[in-house]
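Recall the central idea of this unit: under ordinary conditions, the amino acid sequence of a chain determines the structure it adopts. In this exercise we apply that idea directly, starting from the sequence alone.
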Amino acid sequence: MCRILQLTVFALFATVGLAQNIDRNDIRGLDEQVQDVKKDVIDLTSELTRLEEKLLFPSSTQASFFVSLQGPDGFDLESVEVKLNGEVVAHHLYTFREIEALHKGGVQRIYTANVQAGNHPLEVSYIGKSGSGRDYRATASYAVHKEVGPKFVEIKIAGTESKIDFKDW
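Accordingly, the structure predicted from this sequence is:
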């Protein structure tokens, strides 16, 4: 997109340049201004996203759930389903890049919601394959105890052990 904008601006100046003398420094200056505007737009978008999250999920009721992998690299996670209070709230099919990131220690936020204080049953299921092609499935339950303030729960999947662990942050 930025490259198209640069080419358009260059073509415009080249056309105008036939009528006037414009040197390369003017074009470079304009390119720098375009880059500055682009950076400002990216910064504003990031700030708006943070503000939107604060409005939609106030810290007093926010609960976020994260998925991570533990164990050998020979396991490929295919899908994860999350049920909170008996209702399916998230279902995710994983791409190669996402699996690769999880194997390198990455953590995926799979679900964020407004949850009232109290106990909430959480049920997580996953499907995956080992490097040899063996299928693995597991389901585990956990009682999420939500107090006033944000709640973060990590769902640790140990694929070839058919095990799911939970960790409160």
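The chain has two domains: 2-56, 62-168.
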